[in-house]
């Protein structure tokens, strides 16, 4: 999710790039506070949880089943020039 943008799934190449970059990244112990970003992540999480809810009995009768996949959340930021 870009700042101010809507959440979207990453394509395979994007996931690979992100994972390689995160593997080399430093972990911050004091995350900068950005209330808008926190709200956006919370909203996206609530929406995703709703979309991944258990199928109803009617949906199960129609053949809908659970699908499992890895889910990860990372807040990635560029270091400020002061760091």
Summarize the structure.
The chain is an all-alpha fold. It has 3 helices and no strands. It has one domain.
Characterization of the model:
This protein is mainly alpha-helical. The protein has one domain. The chain contains three helices and no strands. The chain is elongated, with a radius of gyration of 17 Å. 0% of the residues are buried. The model has no long low-confidence stretch (mean pLDDT 76).
What is the CA-atom radius of gyration, in angstroms? 17 Å
Count of the domains: 1
Strand content: under 5%
Helix segment tally: 3
Counting copies of identical and different chains, the oligomeric state is single chain
Fraction of residues in helix: 40-55%
- Gap from first CA to last CA: 24 Å
Largest sheet: none
Q: Roughly what is the average pLDDT, rounded to an integer?
A: 76
What's the order of the H and E elements?
Answer: HHH
The 3D shape can be described as: elongated
| Unreliable parts | none
Features of this protein?
83 residues, mainly alpha
Chain-wise SSE layout:
Elements: H1 12-24, H2 35-51, H3 57-61
């Amino acid at each position: 999710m870009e700042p101010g943008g809507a959440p979207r799934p990453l394509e395979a190449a994007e996931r690979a790039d992100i994972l390689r970059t995160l593997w080399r990244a430093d972990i911050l112990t004091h995350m900068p506070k950005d209330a808008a970003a926190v709200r956006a992540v919370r909203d996206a999480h609530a929406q995703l949880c709703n979309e991944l809810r258990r199928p109803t009995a009617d949906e199960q009768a129609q053949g809908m089943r659970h699908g499992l996949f890895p889910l990860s959340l990372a807040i990635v930021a560029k270091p400020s020039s002061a760091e």
